[in-house]
Amino acid sequence: MEKRTSLQGFWSSRLAFILAVTGSAVGLGNIWKFPYIMGENGGGAFMLLYLVFVFLIGLPAMMAEILIGRRGRRNPVTTLEIVGEEESGHKRWRVIGILGVSAGVLILSYYSVVAGWALAYIFKAAQGLFTAASADVVGELFNSHTGNWKASLGWHTVFMLMTIMVVARGVERGLEQAVRILMPALLLMLLVLLVYSVKNGDFSAAVNYMFAPNFSDLTLNGALVALGHALFTLSLGMGAVMAYGAYLPEDSNIGTTAVAVVIADTAIALLAGLVIFPVVFGQGLDAAAGPGLIFQSLPLAFGSMKGGVVFGTIFFLLLSFAAWTSAIGLIEPAVAWMNESFGFKRPVATFVIGGLVWAVGLLSVFSFNLLSHITTPFGTLFKTVDFFTSNIMLPLGAFAITGFAGWVMCRNSTSDELKMGTGLRYNLWRICVRYIAPIAIVFIFINKLGLL
Ligand code: TRP
After folding, report:
1. pLDDT tens digits for 87-134?
2. pLDDT tens, 34-46?
3. Mutate to test the pocket of ligand 1, among 238, 330, 335, 392 (most ligand atoms within 8 A of CB)
């Protein structure tokens, strides 16, 4: 087979690729979403299931996305079309890519709204609004921020402009540099906060809540949410990692790369839980408070700690950066597709897609104020977009992508691309993508549908 080359350039090294994928993986999912959905789904049992899904489905699926991406060397739609044609003679596999590109646009539409809250909180923290505030005051601050559509809309707009700015310039220049510094800084900040939580929060209650599984708390819906989040947090199921994989140099080892990303992402999610839940329990807050959880718990910690104004400001700054590096990954597949298949220049493609995301995001902005009365069986419009993408589109995408790597691609192609021989490790991977991942996903879906 003649090797194709990427049209958007290459990562400068394997480390750069690891940082970029980690940058996309570590985001609001780890720090904002994970604690609150764990709180809504009963703690320890949810956590355990999430970890099982991360390693049994997430890790092999990540390897599958990278290998497909590198083989195709194009945006996810074209990549699936050409690899699919090589392997099976059919171009129709491109629909998986189209599903993924749409999921990215939809996810970013609400992700940007939450990232906008994080941006706004940088300034609230810096102004000292949390200092010595009570839980009620902090809760009111959050509700009045999201309830004010002008403020929410403004910050959503700022965040989308920031994202467009970087993506328009091309991935390598802006992104690699930012991620290299910001990720370690975020980790450091979480460790500082961990020290505070251990000393001042109810740490043992938190550990108990997170790590002592109580299976009677777990529902089928909880299992679906855990599966959806395992994919969401690793940026899987929508071709984002596939798009990044297209820019990976030929000789980089895919397996060890994926392991590094999965471990880093999981570590940050656990750390975020260990920072947030001690404050939640120490202050008698409700772990099931929903999307406002970190915006209502962490300010209490900042408000009562020495240097809290500085720490709080830095924390929300880093959270915004983490969201930024993820937003770039969410929009990249759509931008690369418009650029490669429709001939739009990269900056133009970025503006068009960014504008579309911004417009769809209005639904999420208004779901906390003007349109808060509109609900679906999943809750507000904001929750509906989140549920539909994370719990339906991503699992479907992951089912299709793992199935593609396991059943459509032949053994020779995948082992050639993974470069880890055809021994035990390769076979374990193949069993996961052929059987375990697709069956687990279908099983959860069928059960869930049976209950509806
Ligand atoms: N992983 C990101 C987070 O946890 C969110 C996300 C989902 C994402 N899918 C993505 C980011 C695709 C980049 C690309 O916050």
Report:
1. 999 999 999 999 999 999 999 999 999 999 999 999 999 999 999 899
2. 999 999 998 999 9
3. 330
